[in-house]
Write a structure and sequence with these properties.
This protein has 7 helices and 7 strands; from the N terminus they run βααααβββαβαβαβ. Strands 1, 2, 5, 6 and 7 form a 5-stranded parallel β-sheet that branches. A two-stranded parallel sheet has the order 3-4. The structure holds zinc ion.
Length: about 200
């Protein structure tokens, strides 16, 4: 990620703070697995999860829309992610054992993000073009009235490419808004990964 370096200055105004790009958040996976709602604050999520097994299994929530506002996180690479069955951990429900299931699970996460931005267009926008990116940055560059905020731009990042049944599908995924693909996640049939060579057996 290329970031513009800005040296800290005492007394600089809030609006002059650099915007941040968060280059990896498993938002959909957390929404599906733990029912997390990223329109909520971290504090609210932690309050709701107190006494459940979620913090122990997944760690305390550390991101939410109010925190994105405070941290000036204007853009998030929002992942599409599912776990191969051989790496399943306790509580993981977004799991595939074959490529058709992988395709369905990855595809469903696009629908989930769409629902999020349709329901909360003031909080989250999808970005799949320079025009949409510029619109989000433009919004962040202007002050907003108290109590309001800026939409966080989401760019789809496929983590592990097993959702793509064949490279022939790439145009279809592009049309759905997918802009970044990480071929590997602990090794896929497309690419070797952590502790695993390229695999043809899923
Ligand atoms: Zn991830």
């Amino acid at each position: 990620m290329a970031t513009k370096s800005v040296s800290p200055q005492v007394g600089r105004s809030f609006m002059n703070m650099p915007l941040i790009i968060d280059s990896h958040q498993d938002l959909a996976w957390n929404m599906l697995t733990y029912g997390r709602d990223y329109t909520r604050s971290v504090q609210e999520t932690r309050r709701l999860e107190a006494g459940t097994t979620t913090p122990e299994r997944n760690g305390d929530s550390i991101v939410g829309w109010p925190e994105y506002q405070r941290g000036q996180v204007a853009v998030v690479f929002a992942t599409l992610y599912a776990t191969p069955a051989r790496k399943k951990e306790m509580g993981d429900t977004v799991v595939y054992a074959d490529y058709e299931t992988a395709h369905r699970l990855y595809r469903n996460q696009i629908d989930l993000y769409r629902k999020l931005v349709d329901t909360h267009p003031d909080k989250f926008n999808l970005i799949s073009s320079t025009k949409e990116l510029n619109a989000v940055i433009e919004h962040w560059s202007k002050p907003v009235p108290d109590g309001e905020g800026h939409p966080v731009g989401l760019i789809y990042l496929m983590e592990g490419a097993e959702g793509i049944r064949s490279p022939h599908e790439l145009a279809e995924w592009y049309d759905l808004g997918l802009r970044i693909i990480g071929l590997a996640w602990a090794g896929t049939r497309y690419c070797g990964g952590t502790q695993r060579a390229r695999s043809l057996d899923g």
